[in-house]
Amino acid sequence: MSLDDAKAAFQTESGTSPAQMADLQALLERLTETNAVMNLVGPDSLPEYWTRHVLDSAQLLDHAPAARTWADLGAGAGFPGLVLAILLKGQPDAHIWLIDSLGKRCRFLQGIVDLLSLPATVIHGRAEDQKLRVDIVTARALAPMDKLLGYAQPYFTRGAQGLFLKGEKAEMELQTAWASWSFEADLSISRSDPRGRIVSVRSLHAR
User: Fold this and answer.
1) Span of the secretion signal (predicted)?
2) pTM for the complete prediction?
3) Does 111 count as an annotated binding residue?
4) What is the structure's pLDDT at 2?
5) Is 140 labelled a binding residue?
6) Range of the domain at 195
7) Is 185 annotated as a binding residue?
8) What band does 141 get if pLDDT is binned at 50, 70 and 90?
């Protein structure tokens, strides 16, 4: 499927507005330009931008439709955080915190936030050191689940729930994490890739 066909399919499926599609297209253009000099995403994933990155990120909103504040840990190239910020732009009280420990990634993220006037704050620092109160803490491709829950634990203590984008080893990662953590979890099949999973986590406590 071509990029244009994938773009049209995403808009039809998601009901995304023309203004949101324009912002998502601007993100693709800036990402493609920056990726040529800085490895933000695998170059082979750019032709699959609308499914592998945008749909993958956007589907989280179906799992937490009432959530307005999100923390994206290890925000990297902005998936899912920038996509969420684009889709929540203009909604009352919506805000996304994009947290990354690498300065050059933060500069990329800040450039997009400024360009698109997004309801987002970029934080250059360690995810586990932040003292934010949010509805949802999320991450994609940051760390195995047992380590990821350690990064996310401070957010859970302030009332957050977790929605994490994981690959085909999600079940195995959960089994490992339960050795160190007590929590409730549900898995859903990803709409962007049937091998992927969305892991919903609640009631997290260290054992």
Assistant:
1) none
2) 0.96
3) no
4) 86
5) yes
6) 3-206
7) no
8) confident
- In our burial notation (b when 16+ CB lie closer than 10 A, e otherwise), range 167-199 reads eeebeebbeebeeebebebeeeebbbbeebbbb
Residue 119 vs residues 65, 89, 147: alpha-carbon distances, Å: 17, 6, 28
CATH number of residue 179's parent domain:
3.40.50.150
Count of structural domains, the chain = 1
- Those residues whose C-beta lies under 8 Å from the C-beta of residue 178, and which sit 6 or more positions away, are none
Are 130 and 99 within 8 A, CB to CB? yes
Secondary structure percentages of the chain, helix, strand, coil, to 5: 45, 20, 30
Among the residues of the chain, which ranges form H helices?
3-14, 18-35, 56-58, 60-63, 81-88, 103-116, 145-157, 170-177
Task: Give me the residue label for tokens 């840990």.
Answer: 73
Residue 64 marked as a ligand binder: no
d(CA 92, CA 110): 21
